[in-house]
Amino acid sequence: MKIGFEAKRAFQNFTGLGNYARFVIRILSENQPQNQYFLYAPKAAKNPRTNFLFHLKNVSIVTAPKTFLKSSWRSRGVVRNLKNDGIAIYHGLSHELPIGLKKAKIKSVVTIHDLIYLHYPQYFKWLDRKIYDYKFRSACKNADKIIAISEQTKRDIIQFFEVDAEKIEVIYQGCDASFSKKVSDDEKAKSKAKYNLADEFLLCVGSIETRKNQVLILKALVQLPSNINLVLVGKKTKYVDQLNDFILKNDLKSRVIILSDVSFQDLPAIYQLAKIFVYPSRFEGFGIPILEALTSGIPVIAASGSCLEEAGGPNSVYISPDNEEELAQTILKVWDNNSLQNEMILKGKEYAENFEDEKIAADLIELYQNI
Q1: What is the pTM of this model?
Q2: Which residue ranges form the domains of the chain, and what is each CATH number?
Q3: What is the pLDDT of residues 215-248, one digit of tens each?
């Protein structure tokens, strides 16, 4: 079977949507090698995160013709390439599909990651919301099947877009295989020195923005003993100014490190150096950093209220995203209890096995075959 993918973000995005695209392409190529996979992207740039895509034996990369405006090619012109390549199924990996697939008799699947722009419109520009709404609704209407990356997202698609539940399948995503590999003591020591990390610390990974709610950890930190430090890793937004103001006003500068320039290759070591992973986000489509933490063998404390329980499983601990006292008490409870930590680590790794590559690849192929 020839399967095509909208692969712009696989080559150009190095956070959530790009990670998902590269993950799907990799696990299908490795675990379902009987198929041919075609990646359609405006351009295909080589870098440490994308180099492997150029070396997968059953993967072909197709870029936009120079005569085409790249946005026009992605939204319409690519269909001609799909027909010429004999594509049976086209999978839009992040919320959108080109026009003309039905006329070309090409089956289609779209992955919807989240509908956060509808839950929290205040975090998005008016024009961006309008563009998202048009693309998301159109893709859900025209796709033969919709993949939701969590039960939360499935419920949202049904509620906001009034899509028949039978059209939607929940297929979770996994995390990069590097997080399951034990990092050597030498490599951990190098990362510790490189980023000036404490011997023990709380860790939170994710874009530093209002919705992620990192200020809750700072508020909890004020109530915690001075030997408990925090490392925040993620792309900075204006929200970081609010965090820095809080840090200065509450004399936390010696206890908090904010890192925005961490290479992906160093992330597994940082996870494995951490004592507890804290993720107080108000809303997520899934929460892949939680799965990265479980896979790395780190106890997880996360916020309730969206889908984080799906990512963290029954043995992680969940707190209100508005209660810093509850978070502080929960951190102390885990921090001071080695037996609880060990149980959370063991059960967390067991739960993470639900998101292994082979299972997710098989689920994807089964969905493709049943369209």
Answers
A1: 0.91
A2: 2-174+356-369 (3.40.50.2000), 177-354 (3.40.50.2000)
A3: 999 999 999 999 999 999 999 999 999 999 999 9
pLDDT of residue 66: 80
CA distance 306 to 318: 11
Phi, psi for residue 39 in degrees, rounded to 5? -105, 120
CA–CA dist 266, 28 (Å, integer): 26
Amino acid at 228: I
DSSP class per residue in 214-231: THHHHHHHHTS-TT-EEE
Tokens of 281: 């986000």
Give, in order, the Cα–Cα distances in Å from 366 to each of 53, 170, 277, 289, 370. Answer: 23, 12, 34, 27, 6
330-334 long-range Cβ contacts below 8 angstroms, 24+ apart: 330/301, 331/202, 331/220, 331/224, 331/228, 331/276, 331/278, 331/301, 332/224, 334/276, 334/299, 334/301
- SS3 labels along 193-204: HHCCCCCCEEEE
Q: Looking at residues 39-56, what average pLDDT do you find?
A: 94
203 Rama sector, left if φ>0, alpha if ψ -120 to 50, beta otherwise: beta
166-221: pLDDT as tens digits: 999 999 999 998 999 999 999 999 999 999 999 999 999 999 999 999 999 999 99
Distance from C-alpha of 354 to C-alpha of 174, rounded to nearest angstrom: 9
The pLDDT of residue 69 is above 80? no
Element (H, E) at 6: strand 2-6
Q: What is the pLDDT of residue 147?
A: 98
Residue the block writes with tokens 């709404």: 133
Q: In sequence order, what DSSP letters do the residues of 273-285 get, joined into one string?
A: H-SEEEE--S--S
| Contact (CB, 8 A) for 103 and 143 | no
